[in-house]
Amino acid sequence: MDMIGEERISAPRQLVWEALNDPDMLRQCIPGCQSLEWISPSELAATLKLRIGPVSASFSGGITLTDINAPESYTILGEGKGGIAGFAQGYAKVTLIDEGAETLLQYAAQAQVGGKLAQLGSRLIGSSSQKLATRFFADFNKAVMDKAGAA
């Protein structure tokens, strides 16, 4: 499953970059995120609880940041195991483009699922993934704008 998109954020690129690397801010924005913490300078541990169609599962896994070009871009590699529900793994290339007082966040992501999740079908998985991404970016945009307003 592939997803491509962009989000315009009314904040300077440096502030958006800092927010993308702030586990507390991300925890608030990632749907179902129960924990997110740094375990090394480029790795995070995460626990999420999600419902996709009829399947509800808790996922534990890791996130690794590679190809870091601060404050412009990086690649996020992630994988999580949800026990009987299956697994999810994927990556996203995130690029921040400075456009005056705003930042254009572009992303290209690819994900794979296995186990019970894969049995749900690609249409349901794709639709659910798009809804989760839309919710994340709306919440992230609001959180960054709130932080920019407070600064």
From TrEMBL:
<dbReference type="InterPro" id="IPR023393">
    <property type="entry name" value="START-like_dom_sf"/>
</dbReference>
<dbReference type="Pfam" id="PF06240">
    <property type="entry name" value="COXG"/>
</dbReference>
<dbReference type="InterPro" id="IPR010419">
    <property type="entry name" value="CO_DH_gsu"/>
</dbReference>
<protein>
    <submittedName>
        <fullName>Carbon monoxide dehydrogenase</fullName>
    </submittedName>
</protein>
